[in-house]
Amino acid sequence: MSISRRSVRILGVASASAALALGFAGNALACEIGDFSASASCDGSNGVITVTDNDASGTEATITVFLENNGSDAKQIGDATPVKGSAKGVTVTFSEAWQPNATYRVHVKAGNKVDKDISPNLTTPSKACATESPSPTPTEASPTPSETPSTPAESDTPTPSASESSSTPPATTTDNAPSPAAGSSNLAETGANSNTGMIAGIAGAFVVAGGGAVYYGMRRRGATNGR
Predict the structure, then answer these.
(1) Do 83 and 63 touch, CB atoms closer than 8 A?
(2) Pairing label, strands 72-84, 90-95
(3) Which of 16, 19, 42, 65 meets the CB 3.0–4.6 Å disulfide criterion with 129?
(4) Is it true that the peptide bond before 125 is cis, omega within 30 degrees of 0?
(5) Is 219 helix (H, G, I), strand (E, B) or coil?
(6) pTM above 0.70, yes or no
(7) Residue closest to 42 by CA, chosen among 136, 133, 132
(8) What is the DSSP-derived secondary structure letter of residue 141?
């Protein structure tokens, strides 16, 4: 049984089509840098960098992230992290307290198929993650001072006024004043121990003596006139 040229031609075209289809399918499943993407976001108050692997072929890759400063690597963020992608996408995260408008370089290494950076470099948002403020510590309530101050009780003993105390001078004793003679006050009050009786007796004697002298003188004068 011989094969016609037409049949050979048809088989050739079918084989070429199958090879071409397989080639397209292989290219479609091949790992490439376009299967990877990166973004910066916040996990609460913490910053994170997320890398997503959408490689449908499931080729295992290694992701490394670097902080850039003036076009060079300033530091590596965390450790190099392996990832095995899928058509739905597989993500890996790197904890990083990123600053607004910072630049990061994300490098992908997948066997001998991919060894490139995700282009363009990752630029963080212009607003940093919110910092949670600590809860204030409750303090004990301080006692409220009384609105009206207490009035001290009044003293039962009246206090002398300034006018009274100033108008009554204190009694003073003059050292230069002569002290009364001893016993003079008793003699002035009672009259005892005085010389009044003796003085009266002497005065009476002088009166009697004077009267006698007058009488004697008058008689003598009368006698003289009678001669």
Answers:
(1) yes
(2) unpaired
(3) 42
(4) no
(5) helix
(6) no
(7) 132
(8) P
Per residue in 182-210, pLDDT tens? 444 444 444 445 566 777 788 888 887 88
Whole-angstrom Cα distance, residue 115 to residue 36?
A: 12
Strands (E), 46-181: 46-53, 60-69, 72-84, 90-95, 103-110, 114-117, 122-123
Query: What single letter denotes the amino acid at residue 217?
Result: G
Let me know: does 52 contact 90? Beta carbons within 8 Å. Answer: yes
Distance (Å, whole) CA 62 – CA 116:
11
The token pair at 149 is 């101050």
Contact present, 158 and 165 (Cβ < 8 Å): no
Coil vs helix vs strand at 41: strand
Residue 156's pLDDT is 55
Answer for the pair 29, 57: CB distance below 8 angstroms, yes or no: yes
d(C-alpha 216, C-alpha 194), whole Å: 35
* Long-range contacts from 171-179, C-beta under 8 angstroms, 24+ separation: none
